[in-house]
Every structure is written in structure tokens, then in C-alpha cells.
# Entry
Amino acid sequence: MACTASGCETSACTATPATPVTPALWLVQDGDTRMYIFGTVHALPPGVPWFSKPVVAALDGSDRMILEVPLPEDPMAMLALTIRLGRAGAPRPLAERVPPEWRPALESAIAELKPGQLEGYESWYLALTLANLQALANGFQTALGAESVLAERARPFRHLRVFRYQRDVDVRAVPFTKGLAVAELARHLGIDRAQILAIGDGHNDISMLDPSIAGMTGCPLNATPEIVEQVHAVGGHIARTPSLEGVIEIFDAYRAGKVCSDLPPQWIPASETEHPAALRPAHKKRGRRDWRRLRKPLLLAACLYTVYVVIAIFFEKMPFNKAIRGRYDRIAAAIWNALSPRDAAPPR
# Structure
């Protein structure tokens, strides 16, 4: 709407209908400087087609990107900090924190979203948790938000994650998609987040050990240090036994209500440990290399033997035909006797 005024008299205002802009992308240009302004949403449900060609062209043609909400370099450290700051000095009933007329809505939200025991947390942490859980229940995901998608595309080395140790840096190509897959499967099946137990032991399990994905988490004793620290930060169960025994221990702990998030005795943080590859004995590496050199010859020998057996079965004039055919006949007879009636004649 444009209006002009002269003295004390006001001219008529001319209304101009607004034209929708899709997507919400504006170009500001001055000389040789071009700047794009893009309206972003922090979390989105699946299926929103916002990442269109104009947005991609603007992003790929820019040499710098500034986000409204900077993404944390270490989300797990940010989560642990949020939990620590959110803890209150003493537990306080949730109903006392809101006016009486708001209490039915609060009780309904808690019963539906099942955020867990929050009496020992500050009110802002309660509001943030309920808002995030409601958005998650509605299908909204931060991984699909504009900031996450734009930052992922703008990274020069996508699909890489850096793990720091005492004297080493480990760069790995890891598909962090398990959390997204678990969340989408739970939404499709109508399973509540509080009913999901996620157990992991490797770097590619980090995304599904987020409390917004699984209400219960755990890891065996032989999990990587980053996984142990993540489970400790979110209050999951850290088993005292490794591998499958640790998984069974986690099941039993949640079933009995004896979840223990304490770090293992004599725990050393991941940043202060040696790189796992540096701790492997050298003879194991040699053995693995020797096995890799033998794989192709062994595979070729197995293929040739299979072809020879097939030929020996159908052609009698072959070397060692009697030995190979006799073994085949015994196996065929055993299968026939097990599956056929007793009075049926065996195959020839």
C-alpha cells in the first residue's frame, strides 16, 4: 500500500494486491555486490518442496553464507550443556508453574507427549521440551529444516565427520541417516518416541541416540568413546558388558527400571585417548593384508571347483567322476529319504 501526504491534506491511498513470492528469496544488489535474503524455517515436515532451483542457484553462486541460527559444531556437547543448564535446584511440581486455567492443557500435553520426569528442571526447559516433542509428533524434523539443508550443501566436504583424539584426527565418510530413518519409521507406524529403545556402538549410530528420536538409549561396554559420552549425556544405560551381552543387559536394565548412566570405571574421554587404529597390533594388520591378497585366488578356485562338480554330475567320463558323483548321490538320497514317502523309489 502506497500513500502520499501534502500539508494537512491526505491524498487517497492506492492499494496494490500483494503477489506471493515462492520461494521467499530476495536479491539485494549494489554495483558488483549481490546479496540474497532467504526466509528460512528451522524445522520442516517431509515433502515440503522449498529447495527449488532458484534457491540452489543462489546458494551455489554465493561465496559466503550467514545463518540466523548458527548450527552448533558439536550437537552432543550442546545437548549436554542444555541439560546441565536446565536442571533446577530442587524439584517443583509442574502444575504450580502455570495459571490454574492453563493446567488442563499442560496435563493433556504431558499425557500425550510423555516427556518423562521434568519436575527437576527449569520451566523454560519444560516448555522447550514440550514444544520440540509436539513438533516431532507433527512430523517436523530439524534435519529437514532450511538451516540444516543449506549448511549441508554449503560444506566443502560433505558426508564427512571429524573425530579428534589425543594426537590424531580421524576423518570418516559416515552416512548419519539412522536417526532420520528411525524417526520416519516410528511416524509411519504410529510409535511414540518414549517407546523406542535405540542401542548403538559405532559412530554411525550417533544420530539415532538423540532424545528427540528415541526416549530410551543404551550402548555396550565396547562402544566407541563418542557413543558412550552421548548415552551418558542423555541419561541412557551404559552396559558393563560388551557386545551382545551388553545389549541383553540394556534390555534387562530398562525392564527392571535400573538404568545406569554412569561412565565406566577409569573412564578416559575420547579427546584424551589414542586413536583406535594406533592401538591395533601390527601383526593383525599384516594378517588382514595377507587375507586380502588370497581372496581373489580362493574365489577363483571355488568357482572352478563348482563348475567342475556340475560337469562331473552330468558327464560320466571325467577325472574323479566316481568320487564326486558318489558324494552327490549320497546327499541326494539323504534329502529324498527325509522329504519323500517311505515307499517312493529314490531318484536315479
